[in-house]
Design a protein that fits this description.
By secondary structure, the chain is mainly α. It has 2 domains: about 5-40 and about 220-290, 2-Layer Sandwich (Trypsin Inhibitor V, Chain A), CATH 3.30.10.20; about 50-210, no CATH class. It is about 55% helix and about 10% strand. It is built from 8 helices and 7 strands. The strands form 3 sheets. A 3-stranded mixed beta sheet has the order 4-7-5. A two-stranded antiparallel ribbon has the order 1-2. The chain has a two-stranded antiparallel sheet with strand order 3-6. A hairpin with a 6-residue loop joins strand 1 and strand 2. The longest helix has about 30 residues, at about 100-130.
Length: about 290
């Protein structure tokens, strides 16, 4: 075989190898679109950032703390309900007679209810961010630490605010007679105030604005679009679907698949469906090809 023929054969082998590799190896993709989640309670958007090692440690620390707190406040609830006041005795407050006063008990139940509500709301946030979206930020650890106490204080705020007669549920607020009749509804108010702390802030802001005639701040509308599910679509169908959602098709890469029904169909997309991205963002997809 001549030198030229050897070079020709070598060039053919290199070309065939590159062709195979181009199918097996994903092509370099366009930068991934920034992903957002819109909070259903406030309408605000938050950018989704994947967790790193420190974020996962913070998530574990926060759930352990929240579980300890929920057991602590449940213990306090039943301990006070039974009239033992164990915590007061541990701190040397042996004469706990004044704590049995009906007004004091109502405040205590409201405080505990607010704390439990704040804890439950924060556990819900932990499940949403860490378990569902793998996007728990280490900064959320501070939010978890203060949530029981913030909920408790908000419960007290709401309790006194309602007792003052400024805010009404339905008509005039009239507490029932007797400790139990008053404690149960006030505990419930505290629980709801702690759980819905964000809405309580909005509710309190509304009354502050009304009383002191302050102007409300209006959040600027964000130009975000929900990402559709493209799985199972052809490239053309995916492109049209994205156009309908005011998005565009990004880089298309191909991978071999054994599933015949997924040949020339979208196998995956780099941005998860139902998340939000900025309008006009490019969504990268992966198409299946024959082996």
């Amino acid at each position: 075989m001549t030198e030229n023929n050897k070079k020709s054969e070598s060039a053919k082998k290199v070309a065939e190898t590159e062709k195979k590799v181009s199918v097996l190896t994903p092509a370099k993709t366009v930068g991934k679109a920034r992903e957002f989640i819109i909070d259903e309670q406030t309408g605000r958007s938050f950018e989704v950032k994947p967790e790193d090692k420190m974020d996962r440690l913070a998530a574990r620390a926060s759930i352990i703390y929240l579980l300890i707190m929920i057991f602590f406040f449940l213990w306090q609830l039943f301990d006070i309900w039974l009239g033992r006041f164990t915590l007061a005795q541990l701190f040397g407050y042996l004469n706990y007679g004044p704590l049995t006063n009906s007004s004091t008990l109502i405040g205590i139940y409201t405080f505990i209810g607010g704390a439990l509500g704040g804890i439950v709301n924060e556990i819900r946030g932990f499940l949403f961010w860490h378990c569902d979206h793998n996007a728990f930020g280490r900064r959320y650890l501070w939010k978890a630490l203060v949530s029981p106490w913030l909920g408790a204080v908000l419960g007290i705020f709401v309790y006194f605010f309602m007792r003052s007669g400024i805010a009404l549920f339905t008509g005039e607020f009239i507490p029932g007679e007797g400790t139990v009749q008053q404690a149960i509804p006030m505990f419930t108010i505290g629980l709801l105030a702690g759980y819905g702390s964000r809405k309580v802030f909005i509710w309190l802001d509304h009354h502050v604005d009304r009383i002191f005639k302050l102007k409300k701040k209006k959040d600027e509308a964000e130009n975000l679009k929900k990402v559709p599910n493209l799985k199972g679509m052809t490239k053309e169908e995916a492109e049209k679907k994205l156009d309908d959602f005011e998005l565009k098709l990004g880089k298309v890469k191909e991978v071999q698949t054994e599933k015949k029904d997924m040949i020339k169909k979208v196998i995956s997309q780099d941005t998860k469906p139902n998340l939000y991205v900025e309008a006009g963002s490019a969504i990268n997809i992966t198409l299946g090809v024959r082996e």
